[in-house]
Amino acid sequence: LLIKLSEAYRMRAVDRFNAAIKTTDNDAKTQGLDAARKDWTESAANANKAFEVVNSLTPTADNQATLAQNKLAATTVRALALHFVATKVDQTQAQAAWEAYQQLIAIETDSAKKTKYKADALQTLLDAGANDLALQESQKVLAEEPDNVDANRIAGLALFATGDKTKFQQAANYLQHFVDKAPDTDPLKQSAKDALDYLKTAENIKPEKTQPSRAPARRRP
Predict the structure, then answer these.
(1) Contact indicator for 70, 54 with CB cutoff of 8 Å
(2) Segment 65-88, tens digit of pLDDT
């Protein structure tokens, strides 16, 4: 029930938010956005309760499979609910949303979903304005996967978003690597290109050639 309530509040919030941003009536817009934020907050509250309940239960031979499914469902809706809270309601919840995604990634067994959640977690930090943390976590990923397109994009945009011109060169390097590696079908490629074009034209920055993705093979003694 708590999981379904969380999902219902979240979906209603999205509908209210979309309706609010389309209206030209300022009062209706304000009321709609406030209502959406309240729904997202309620969604997170119910998701947190569901998460606490399923994690307080002790698995047995009879309920182990069902409990595992419920735990995954609760952890999934919690991460998504906290994503919206951090990005639409209260940016100070960015760390909590990040941690919720890490808990989800830890128990998700589907490799494609796990990869998506890793990207979603980084995007949440960026959208919540947690630029330092977004950069820090992206660089951790890049230390292991230099060609990870999501981490390159997030790192570049996080540096760009600071407005600190001393960081623009590094931002351009990351963004160029993303543009080079990301497929043209990536819906986020154009926004990265726009940021990169600004750095090249307005700031006169030329992206530096990235380091090889793989270390050269060692010579045999």
Answers:
(1) yes
(2) 999 999 999 999 999 999 999 999
Q: For 97-132, what is each residue's pLDDT tens digit? A: 999 999 999 999 999 999 999 999 999 999 999 999
Q: Where do we find the tokens 């990923």?
A: 141
Separation CA 15–CA 40 (nearest Å)? 11
**3-state class of 191 per DSSP?**
helix
> Please, are residues 140 and 176 in contact by the beta-carbon 8 Å criterion?
no
Say if CB 121 and CB 103 are below 8 A apart. no
The answer for residues whose C-beta is within 8 angstroms of residue 34's C-beta and 6 or more apart is none
Q: Which of 132, 38, 51 is nearest to 88 (CA)?
A: 38
- State which amino acid sits at residue 181: K
Neighbour tally for 163: CB within 10 Å: 9
Cβ atoms 196, 168 nearer than 8 A: no
> What letter does residue 35 receive in the DSSP assignment?
H
pTM assigned to the model = 0.89
